[in-house]
Amino acid sequence: MLAKRIIPCLDIKDGKTVKGVNFVNFRDAGDPVELGRQYSMQGADELVYLDITASHEGRKTFTELVKKVAAQVNIPFTVGGGINALEDVDRLLNAGADKVSINSSALRDPNLINQIASNFGAQVCVVAIDANFEDNDWLCYLNGGRIKTERKLYEWAKEAQERGAGEILFTSMTHDGVKTGYANEALFELNKMLTIPVIASGGAGTKEHFKDAFELGHADAALAASVFHFGEIPINELKEYLAKQGIPIRI
Amino acid sequence: MKVAIIKYNAGNIYSVDCAMKRIGVDAIVTDDKEMIAKADKVIFPGVGEAKSTMEYLKHHKLDLLIKDLKQPVLGICIGMQLMCANSEEGDVDCLGIFDAPVKGFKPDGINKIPHMGWNNLRIEKESIITREHEGKFVYYVHSFYVPVNEFTIASTDYIEPFSAALNKRNFYATQFHAEKSGDVGESILKNFINLK
Fold first, then answer.
1. Which domains can be identified in chain A, with CATH numbers?
2. What average pLDDT does the segment A16-39 reach?
3. Best CA proximity match to A133, nearest among A171, A78, A89, A77
4. Domain B3-193: which topology?
5. CB B192 within 8 A of CB B74
6. ipTM
7. Most buried among A47, A87, A119, B148, by the most CB within 10 A?
């Protein structure tokens, strides 16, 4: 049976791991390669490395980091941040990444999804969506949650799938960093309307929150950062708990 | 021991090279026919699309070379699919090493496509995948599959049972990404490398 996936996310700035709470106030959480290796040994099913460096030099550092991760980690990993063109995708896949995640660049130029899918295959293209619940609707944001757009979560997710996205990574800005659980109702809606996998992100604070994302939200995978980085929820304990709750999990 | 990883227009080749290094094997990534022919073991990896990769292999006459190899050969993912008779992906004739078709998963309204993530192995015949791998999880990313057939050595259930791995004489193949399947994947790769 296909297992539900647990995915630690590592935010990278200048080659080091950071994690934002509601997208601001970063705290250092260690060496990204070593952290990734530890997670894979604890039972993480995949890793996401998100480059939040803006500078050109930072990009080079990140590509070097991707190569090191590929050499040392024996599970799949996705990379995101600053991917604006096919050259970026090519560079990161050649450095050993399994998938790329695009966010603002896809909202600005949705055709990038079609291009990635047709050049590298749909399975490579993860479309990440940051959305906030306001005025009775889920609105998509650009630039790591800094710029609001008119796009609505459900229609954008559907369009991304039609254009060739292989997965949707949905981060609820409403829930991110506050540790009160994932946006399960929105996840449920997304999973009902899409035929591609959906990754839940934003809001994990307890083991039960992961269970809810799978049982109530029907998510295919759940992503979290700080609860893993600071050892609040060890991945092996989380997976044992979920397996006991009857959720298909790789132990 | 010389291990050659076939270089062609498919992705993920560097990942296979990295996995080899992790199990202590210094492989050569090459499209040089002589080097491939002389290697002790050959790996035919890849992430990609059947039609364009098959065209590339034909254009570079790698298709004939691969079919004639006598040493142990391991196809991974699209590599495995290209070793079959034909693929629904782009409706293309493939290498025909395994007389089996490659079909597309049909949406059933429940299971998502691509089949992406970790799923269990069921052992059909002991080979490079052994009893110790029974029920273990391996990593898949694919929308096309090879139905269970006479060459199936391990199977997995998704929408319907399909071939997780194949073997015929010196030819081995896995649909899953052994290079990304954690310790289980590394142990299967070691078993292939240790074949006599």
1. 5-244 (3.20.20.70)
2. 67
3. A171
4. Rossmann fold (3.40.50)
5. yes
6. 0.92
7. A47
